[in-house]
Amino acid sequence: MKLALKEAFPHTIPMLLGFILVGATFGVLVQQEGYGFWVAMFMSLFIYAGAVQFLVVGLLSVHASLLNIFLLVALLNARQICYAISMLEPFSKTGGRIYYLAHTLTDETFMLLSFAKPKQSTQEDFTLAIALLNQIYWVAGTALGAILGDGFSLNVEGISFIVVGTFLVIFIEQWKSTKRHAPALIGFFSALGCFIFFGKVHFLLPTLILMVGLFIMFKRRLE
Hints:
Blueprint: H1 2-8, H2 13-32, H3 37-46, H4 51-61, H5 66-76, H6 80-86, H7 88-92, H8 98-103, H9 107-115, H10 123-148, H11 160-177, H12 182-198, H13 204-217, H14 219-222
């Protein structure tokens, strides 16, 4: 496992930078809303869902019902169904680790697992190392923000661009690592078309549906 962590770490450096900063922002937000250090840590350990955690804090602060919170979280995370289906086969080979891997399958972890491959360690250990390191970064950032939260006046304007920048770095690395660019182009133009047609609020779900449909139609050509 030590070898897998050593191999996985260079691939996760973009996550280290992004997750520490965004996680710290989340920790500060939780403290300023009055929920305390341990609430922030519990959410980052057991919810571990990035934007969803910010959403939950906002909903709790306006005393939203648990049913409303559940429905909104389920809607926001609907895209994870696509990730989970595509990872069923590789995760099934990891034995009991599958439960932790399913819990930690974030957007960023999914992207890294899609193109990063081990050279010396086993694929199972490497997969676990990627997932574990990414969550460690997020939890560490949350702890830092929660500890220092009382001394900051939080302005989250523009903070989301950190995540966007992280995705751009991963996309560029994935583009450079393969000569098969058709899947990336399908994803890009599907998102762009749906963004133009449906608008920035409603484009995500149509994009996922369109992408899945196109991948199924052109599966043989993409292989």
